[in-house]
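The records we work with from here on pair a chain with its fold. The integers have meaning only within a learned vocabulary of local backbone shapes. A complete example follows; check for yourself that the lines match position by position.

:::
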Amino acid sequence: MLFRRTILLKLMIIAVIFSGIGTACGMGEVKDGDEIGLEVGGKDYELLVRSEDISNLVVDIYGIDDATSIIFNDMVVVGIQMAEDIALTDGVKETIINSILEDDPMIRQVLVSDNKKVFDEVEAIIYSLMNGESYDDQVKEINRIIEKLKKE
């Protein structure tokens, strides 16, 4: 499942990049050698790459079948799917948080959830970003998820 999700995500990023490059080349709008026209803009693209790196880091932790994440400022929301017959314990949560904080120095707070709905909501945000929607359009939904997780 993870392998398929990772491959699908990478293929989608490649497709977005190629469609954007094709659009930019067709319009002939390259200035000073810079690439433009990517549907996923510079800042949004960087956040997607960092989010994917965090997801890959988390899924390498024993007992986690799948992970998705979205970064918001210096915070990251991580949705996980635990392996069958393995529960999300405080120890596993601590391992996830420490791994992320050690790996990404720009992250200051990590919110982790094994709630399927949270996982699906984060995936929907990532999908929207990959389809060219702006990060700013997703802020309200990201904040809603953050507030929900902070109350847990």
Notes: Strands lie at 64-72, 75-82, 109-113. Residues 2-27 form the longest helix (26 residues). The domain at 2-151 is CATH 3.30.300.30 (GMP Synthetase; Chain A, domain 3). Confidence is low (pLDDT under 50) at residues 18-38.
